[in-house]
């Protein structure tokens, strides 16, 4: 009887160990998956600041920035050239493959509202500036930017 009991206990321990190993493997796999997902999300939303960037509380004409330094999906200044996405001979920019797909498949990501005139603006053709709180702003033209800047002083 003792022998049978030992065999049963050994069998139970073996099953528990097998389940534990599977559990550890699953935990490792899930942890790796969450780490990769976190990195993707962070890289897509990470914002880089260029040296000498204006951080004062008022907009200035030097706030005009090149379109290729902006992720046009997240509307973030990235401080380095982004991925060009050509759509109907117009070039937009995204920071990652996910943003590239959004630009291609979701036309609304290609447009913004001019904060001065409240009109819809194609981001690829816009005058791009950065506000006092590092928000990317898209203007129909430089004149709208100047008027907006003057209204904020």
Give the SSE layout:
Elements: H1 2-45, E1 70-71, E2 76-77, E3 83-87, E4 90-94, H2 97-105, E5 111-113, E6 120-122, E7 127-130, E8 136-139, H3 142-152
Antiparallel strand pairs: 1-2, 3-4, 5-6, 7-8
Could you explain the architecture of this structure?
This protein has helices at residues 2-45, 97-105, 142-152, and strands at residues 70-71, 76-77, 83-87, 90-94, 111-113, 120-122, 127-130, 136-139. It has 153 residues and is an alpha+beta fold. It has 2 domains: 1-45; 61-152, no CATH class. A two-stranded antiparallel ribbon has the order 1-2. The protein has a two-stranded antiparallel sheet with strand order 3-4. A two-stranded antiparallel sheet has the order 5-6. Strand 3 and strand 4 (90-94) form a beta hairpin. The longest helix has 44 residues, at 2-45. It is elongated. The termini are far apart. Mean pLDDT is 76; it is low at 5-18 and 46-59.
Lateral arrangement of strands in the main beta sheet: 1-2
Major sheet description = 2 strands, antiparallel
Strand content: 15-25%
- How many β-strands, per DSSP? 8
* Total helical segments: 3
Class from secondary-structure proportions:
alpha+beta
From the spread of the alpha carbons, the general shape counts as elongated
The figure for the number of domains is 2
Q: Kindly report how far apart the N and C termini lie.
A: 92 Å
Radius of gyration: 26 Å
């Amino acid at each position: 009887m003792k022998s049978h009991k030992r065999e049963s206990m050994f069998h139970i321990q073996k099953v528990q160990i097998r389940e534990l190993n599977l559990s550890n493997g699953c935990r490792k796999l899930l942890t790796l998956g969450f780490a990769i997902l976190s990195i993707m999300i962070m890289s897509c939303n990470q914002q880089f600041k260029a040296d000498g960037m204006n951080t004062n509380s008022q907009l200035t004409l030097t706030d005009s920035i090149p379109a290729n330094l902006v992720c046009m999906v997240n509307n973030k200044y990235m401080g380095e050239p982004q991925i060009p996405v050509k759509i109907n001979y117009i070039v937009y920019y995204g920071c990652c493959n996910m943003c590239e797909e959004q630009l291609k498949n979701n036309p609304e990501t290609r447009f913004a509202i001019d904060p001065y005139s409240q009109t819809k603006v194609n981001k690829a053709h816009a005058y791009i500036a950065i506000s006092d709180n590092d928000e990317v702003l898209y203007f129909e033209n430089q004149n709208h930017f100047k008027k907006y800047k003057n209204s904020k002083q």
